[in-house]
């Protein structure tokens, strides 16, 4: 069953009926952005944000704020693309790109999916080890199985899957924001962190990792699939209603993700920056440091949030992998086989003993390099009236999206220059 078939079978009410139901109708349409939001608070975010706060204090607060604003714009374009065309981004790339370009796009998107799963499975494995002492390899297998179970909820329609993801997102939010509220934050330093700046190549690497962990390539592909065919607009009023609710969905979902990401960095900056707390560049060290500097409640809140993140984001990542292959190649493989293919590299990393936190940070840098290949086609397609019809981007929107794409490409190019040439 395709995602479109599932959505259609689970949404018997028409858009007009939902409009007449007021706020209850709006609630019935919310959901896709919260699924996307989970990818913005995956375990890679834990590694990069806590490492950034512990190593550079409040310096990179501005990166999280800017990345979250970028995410809102990008996800709104992806959602609108699915709504306007009834197709997702990989499907439209297959239609509008030459065959060799399409195959290249598929290949790099699959690498992005593998890097995504690497972060998510490692995060879940580390969390299970911190909470229950489970070996990392076994924890990785458990995380993969839980993700498979979550995806099984799709057979009952989009709502059960979305509710499970929102529940896990709520656990992440509570686990981290509750710690933030109990932390003594330096207000002036936090405000100063809103001013853009770097402190050497190390901070630039982490900034690129934060960007890769916040503006996730695979979820750019996915969001267009989450809205395609979900509800069919049968007139201008229906279209305007779906657009308004979609913007609300994105503002809420991305707002939650931004608050979670900011909480991570600020807590690390307040508790670890400039201190002699050891190991704060690792997830295990952060867990121990929270217990030392605050209390066991903060430490276990962190671990539970990390576990919820690993479970939820791994399910969403595998879903995105399905969309990528089906869209670019018009082929599907059994869900279990896809789960095993993307799980294998993560289990290999865990099996040979590579440092989990370092693998997480590097995976986010890989994701950052994959952003332009998802973002540029998205901007190009949503700016074309023959593709979007009346929902084509306003010129200001296209300009803003081009600037975002240029910033991402420029940051990555500068990183390469500093790391390998300068």
TrEMBL record:
Membrane-topology annotation of the record: Multi-pass membrane protein
Entry keywords, A to Z: Cell membrane, Ion transport, Membrane, Symport, Transmembrane, Transmembrane helix, Transport
Subcellular locations according to the entry: Cell membrane; Membrane
GO terms under biological process: iron ion transmembrane transport
GO molecular function per UniProt: cadmium ion transmembrane transporter activity; manganese ion transmembrane transporter activity; metal ion binding; symporter activity
Parts of the chain that traverse the membrane: 23-41, 53-74, 111-130, 136-153, 165-181, 201-222, 250-273, 297-324, 336-354, 360-383, 395-417
InterPro entries in UniProt: NRAMP_fam
Pfam families per record: Nramp
A GO cellular component entry from the record: plasma membrane
Record flagged with keyword Ion transport: yes
Function: H(+)-stimulated, divalent metal cation uptake system.
Similarity comment text for this entry: Belongs to the NRAMP family.
PANTHER family documented for this protein: NATURAL RESISTANCE-ASSOCIATED MACROPHAGE PROTEIN 2, SOLUTE CARRIER PROTEIN FAMILY 11 MEMBER
Protein name listed in UniProt: Divalent metal cation transporter MntH
Species whose genome carries this gene: Pseudonocardia alni (Amycolata alni)
Lineage per the UniProt record: Bacteria, Bacillati, Actinomycetota, Actinomycetes, Pseudonocardiales
């Amino acid at each position: 069953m395709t995602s479109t078939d599932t959505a259609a079978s689970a949404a018997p009410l028409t858009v007009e009926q939902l409009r007449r139901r007021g706020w209850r109708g709006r609630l019935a349409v919310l959901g896709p952005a919260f699924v996307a939001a989970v990818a913005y608070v995956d375990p890679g975010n834990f590694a990069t944000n806590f490492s950034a706060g512990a190593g550079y204090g409040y310096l990179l607060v501005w990166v999280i704020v800017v990345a979250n604003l970028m995410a809102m714009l990008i996800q709104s374009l992806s959602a609108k693309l699915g709504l306007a065309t009834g197709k997702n981004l990989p499907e439209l790339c297959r239609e509008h790109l030459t065959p060799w370009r399409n195959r290249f796009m598929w290949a790099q998107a699959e690498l992005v999916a593998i890097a995504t799963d690497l972060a998510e499975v490692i995060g879940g494995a580390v969390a299970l080890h911190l909470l229950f002492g489970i070996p990392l390899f076994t924890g990785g297998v458990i995380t993969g199985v839980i993700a498979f179970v979550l995806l099984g909820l799709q057979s009952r329609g989009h709502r059960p899957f979305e509710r499970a993801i929102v529940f896990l997102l709520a656990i992440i939010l509570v686990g981290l924001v509750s710690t933030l509220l109990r932390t003594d934050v330096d207000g002036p330093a936090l405000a100063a962190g809103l001013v853009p700046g770097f402190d050497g190549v190390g901070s630039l690497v982490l900034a690129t990792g934060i960007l890769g962990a916040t503006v996730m390539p695979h979820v750019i592909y996915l969001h267009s699939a989450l809205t395609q065919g979900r509800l069919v607009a049968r007139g201008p009023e229906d279209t305007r209603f779906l657009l308004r609710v979609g913007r609300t969905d994105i503002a809420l979902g991305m707002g939650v993700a931004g608050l979670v990401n900011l909480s991570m960095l600020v807590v690390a900056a307040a508790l670890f920056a400039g201190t002699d707390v050891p190991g704060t560049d690792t997830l295990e060290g952060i867990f121990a440091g929270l217990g030392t500097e605050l209390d066991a409640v903060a430490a276990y809140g962190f671990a539970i949030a990390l576990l919820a993140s690993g479970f939820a984001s791994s399910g969403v990542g595998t879903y995105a992998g399905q969309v990528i292959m089906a869209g670019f190649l018009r082929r599907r493989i059994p869900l279990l086989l896809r789960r095993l293919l993307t799980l294998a590299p993560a289990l290999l990393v865990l099996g040979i003993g590579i440092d989990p936190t370092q693998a997480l940070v590097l995976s986010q840098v890989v994701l950052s390099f994959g952003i332009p290949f998802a973002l540029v086609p998205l901007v190009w397609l949503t700016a074309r009236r023959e593709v979007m019809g009346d929902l084509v981007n306003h010129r200001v929107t296209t300009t803003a999206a081009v600037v975002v794409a240029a910033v991402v490409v420029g940051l990555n190019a500068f990183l390469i220059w500093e790391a390998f040439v300068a």
